Amino acid sequence: MGGSKVALRLEHDDLSVRESSFRWAGPDGTDAITPGGATHDLELLARHIRELCAGHPERLTGVGVALPATLDATGAVIAWPGRPGWAGVDLRGALSALFGEAEVRCADDGDLAALAEAHEAGCPDLLYLGVGTGIGGGIVLNGKPVPGVGRGSCEVGHLIVDRDGPLCDCGRRGCVQAAARARRRCAGRRGGGARRWRSPRCARPCGTEGSGPWRRCGRVAGPWPRP
Prior knowledge:
By secondary structure, the protein is α+β, with helices and mostly antiparallel strands.
């Protein structure tokens, strides 16, 4: 689940796969919404899940959820800067009511993406950056996510790079995400629009190749593109 859209994937025992996606009907993450106003989002999510599961989501044996929100130990949303109306929502309870006895597990989408890229690229030490409604990512060291299960996520997009920078959705100033968004808006006002970049799959420390201390790994190698 992202700040703008949701992608669903259903895998059957016979290895067949069904997929679908939809966009949230409310704000796309750039505007604030009323706290507690996630009811419509949850209804929309439930409707699309039932459609994908032919009306019987309770028949699933396991459910995995990746989302850019911070949850407490009970499965309630502490904060989701991109969709602030979800704060306080009992996500685990809502999903359990929908999926019945199926085991439901939730984790940060950046951490899960980093683990997936590390596995695919064969990189035990890896930094992953993901650009969507906001900027997220994850760090993998020795094949394990950092800071670790039950200790939150690294929140790459909310690292402060300019204490006097623009205000971020999280309430602080100068986060990577806020700085990038401000730069994109400035580019749009100049008439050129946002510049398009190749999206780096993953990176690992190198120091011997390319023009910087990081290089790309996986199917495509070489220095990262420069601004």
